Amino acid sequence: MTGRQSPLLESVASGLERLRIIDAERFRPTADLAWPRIVTGLAIMSKQTADLAMVGIAVGTAGTAGLAFALAYWEIVLMIGLGLSGGTVSLVSQNYGGDEPERASVVVTQSVFLAIAIALPLAAAFVLFAESLIGLFATGPGGLETDGVGEESLAHGVTYLVLVAPAVLFELLNLIASRTYTGVGDTFTEMVVRAGGALLNIALSALLIFGVGMGVAGAAIGTSVSTGAVTVVLAWGMVGRSYGSLGMEPSPVPISRSSLRLEPALLGQLIEISAPEIGRRIAEGFVVFPLLWIAATFGPVIVTALEVGRRVRSLINSVNWGLGLAASSLVGQHLGADEEDEAGAYGAAILRLATVVYVGLAAAIVIFAEPISGLFVSEPDSVAATATFVAVAAISAIGLGIDGVASGALLGAGDTRLPFLASLVGRYVFAVPAAALALLTPLGVVALYLALLLETYVPGGINCWLFNRGRWKAVSRRYRPSAEVESG
């Protein structure tokens, strides 16, 4: 899919080069990789956002509050998958860029083994301990128990968590397949499959929620079935089978009988790179638990408003699915070819591009925050509260954009430990204490606004500094194919 740019994109490339944001020659491969991944990210993140909107219409704030609690756990699944698949894309891109496709294929197999080992216990926990897990949000001071809505919201959360459990394994495998395609420079195939899965999810959920009257249960079943369907379609290409005339390609690093084995050295490298990245991602996802716990003290309307703001921000962050992964793939491929200066130039250019794009998107969301909020809630007080959260979340997305591309470039080099620490500092040294001010001071809900901003701008600033420092180039030398040759 590379090398074919429309006249519009050529004009955009020229304009960006004149503004000294990114050279046209670097924009073209970046755009080729990024735009399908942006669509893919939008497809993935839109599923829960659409479910939230439909449940809000069919059930009301009791349903959306319960869904928010369950989605906090689903987000942990997503973050674990992103962390594991982040290690996958780092090793796949470096080995593929270093002309070692067979070794890259074995990396993918190790990722699948790890995904299965992680997913099965998680899915079992969702089924066996759903009431206890959702019940954690009812233990705060005041909680939701004080207004009679709490038990209904918690019941909705339990229903969703139990019924979405089968999708845990599907989602982890889907993310590995998606990142594998990204690592070899093909983002079109995963885009088509993921977008189709998102449309199927919305159609099934709408049918089950409104047509059958299943409410939150319908949303969960729609998510599980559509995620499983995506797994089947992606698996077809991941074992090297052709998609025929559909325009999609089989993986050039397929899982085969020869690669279907444990390889301790590569498994060790995968764990070494993925563990800090999984930690960083979990830190990103887990911060929602104290935020929701604090929001619950203000009632289901604020819980819903916070969740809507975060979901809108996740849609904006679809840009990072493209630009962040383009940074990982292009930086990794050039490092695999021992082209450190070019890898650095790509990372810096994509970082500038992301900043410009996110500022523009945030401004647009702030302007239209109220009508956007009206898609999820209908009562005037709920719309006003939600609109404020949407606007603040949109502004915080700028920090998320910087963080995503900077950490993506570091990930392409295999440098994941310091970004993990940056995530911990931003979210747990700054954001959570700021949110706690909602309970300890007259700031109230305003403290939650501050927390949303700090959780993205602090790690974004740290990771941007780490990238500019350049230490990641030295880190990457341990993981390149040439390193194995030299050690052999």
From the structure above, extract its key features.
488 residues, 20 helices, 80% helix, MATE_fam, membrane
Q: Summarize this, please?
A:
The protein is mainly α and 488 residues long.
Mean pLDDT: 87
Give the low-pLDDT segments. 141-149
Shape, please? Answer: globular
Radius of gyration: 22 Å
The string of secondary-structure elements, in order, is HHHHHHHHHHHHHHHHHHHH
GO molecular function, one term: antiporter activity
Main location: membrane
Membrane topology: Multi-pass membrane protein
InterPro entries: MATE_fam, MATE_MdtK, MdtK-like
Descriptive account of the structure:
The protein has 488 residues and is mainly alpha-helical. The chain has two domains: 8-57 and 298-476, no CATH class; 60-287, no CATH class. 80% of the residues lie in helices and 0% in strands. It contains 20 helices and no strands. It has helices at residues 7-18, 24-58, 61-97, 101-128, 130-135, 150-164, 167-183, 188-211, 216-238, 264-286, 288-296, 300-316, 318-336, 340-367, 369-373, 380-412, 417-440, 446-469, 472-476, 481-487. Helix 2 (24-58) packs parallel to helix 8. Residues 141-149 have low confidence and may be disordered.
